[in-house]
């Protein structure tokens, strides 16, 4: 069990975070993400915990790039479950046991915190963050296919090392979209994701996230991931009844709208539409909407339920035995 802590302007809190690491944690990887405050040097000079390992990045890569670098180092040193926490002391490390339990029990490949499981958990969260996280959560459900999770931007996460090794080879977003984009790529692997309830914590830390600057880029990335997911999941890697419902639903809706537009463009001035014309336009739209709702229902029920890491571990063990024989 290893902790991965991206470090960027967290000198005021990082030693507190390290000190709170449970005794059963095997190692702590602190990633200096080209921090202008010299976080790496500060940690090496002041952290007395022998479990601490400092990784320095020559260029700032964002929270995603720093986390991936930490995953790589922790996995190289033998970590089997990798827990990512922020260095600003917003996360209660007393919840790590609950976070890693689904992975250790073989019930999940990836676990993440969810601050929205109880109203009492949200008392310390600013109202604008509550609204923003709710909106981002719905968008993430659509784009990732994980309809069973909430609070996608929560950075308190745990991942099985074999799954992390595969994810590290993918083009996961390196900046603030990292957590959500990681969920999308986990979805392409059919990995099982589990939410773990935990309260929000806010103190005197300063967030580097600016809501106005990320709304547009986030919306485009969600749209891109949704389109890629639907194409890959329902037309490339497999073909379900939902694939037929999607195609048929879009066809009927476009036909109905096109028929209505054609009638409006070609009718004589003042000519009223007959009941037949109205039904010829409305009925395909209604039928198409029903088909799309059926496809949506199939997608909601198609959330991965069988963890992939037992299979990956077995393959890795067999390959290692083959290499040494």
From TrEMBL:
Protein name, UniProt field: Glycosyltransferase family 2 protein
Species, as recorded: Phenylobacterium hankyongense
Keyword Nucleotide-binding applies: no
Transmembrane regions listed in the UniProt entry: 246-265, 272-293
Keywords of the record: Membrane, Transferase, Transmembrane, Transmembrane helix
GO MF annotation, one: transferase activity
Lineage top rank: taxon: Bacteria
InterPro entries in alphabetical order: Glyco_trans_2-like, Glycosyltransferase_2, Nucleotide-diphossugar_trans
Coiled-coil ranges from the UniProt annotation: none
UniProt entry tagged with the keyword Cell cycle: no
Domain Glycosyltransferase 2-like residue range list: 3-162
């Amino acid at each position: 069990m290893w902790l991965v802590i991206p470090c960027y302007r967290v000198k005021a809190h990082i030693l507190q975070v390290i000190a709170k690491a449970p005794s059963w944690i095997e190692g702590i990887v602190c990633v200096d993400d080209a921090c202008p405050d010299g976080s790496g040097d500060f940690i090496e000079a002041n952290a007395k915990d022998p479990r601490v390992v400092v990784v320095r990045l020559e260029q700032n890569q964002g929270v995603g790039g720093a986390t991936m670098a930490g995953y790589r180092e922790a996995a190289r040193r033998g970590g089997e479950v990798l827990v990512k926490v922020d260095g600003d002391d917003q996360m209660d490390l007393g919840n790590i046991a609950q976070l890693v339990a689904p992975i250790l029990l073989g019930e999940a490949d990836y676990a993440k915190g969810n601050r929205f499981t109880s109203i009492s958990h949200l008392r310390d969260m600013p109202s604008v963050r509550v609204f923003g996280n709710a909106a981002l959560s719905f968008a993430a459900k659509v784009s990732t296919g994980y309809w069973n999770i909430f609070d996608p931007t929560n950075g308190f996460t745990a991942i099985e090392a074999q799954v992390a090794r595969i994810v590290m080879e993918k083009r996961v977003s390196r900046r603030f979209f990292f957590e959500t984009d990681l969920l999308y790529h986990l979805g392409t692997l059919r990995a099982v994701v589990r939410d773990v309830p935990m309260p929000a914590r806010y103190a005197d830390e300063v967030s580097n996230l600016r809501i106005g600057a990320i709304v547009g880029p986030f919306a485009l990335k969600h749209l891109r991931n949704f389109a890629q997911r639907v194409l890959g999941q329902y037309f490339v890697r497999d073909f379900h009844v939902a694939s037929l419902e999607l195609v048929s639903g879009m066809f009927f809706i476009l036909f109905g709208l096109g028929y209505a537009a054609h009638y409006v463009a070609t009718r004589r001035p003042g000519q009223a539409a007959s009941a037949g014309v109205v039904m010829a336009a409305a009925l395909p739209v209604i039928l198409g909407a029903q088909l799309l709702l059926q496809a949506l229902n199939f997608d909601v029920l198609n959330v991965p339920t069988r963890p992939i890491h037992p299979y990956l571990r077995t393959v890795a063990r067999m390959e290692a035995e083959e290499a040494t024989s």
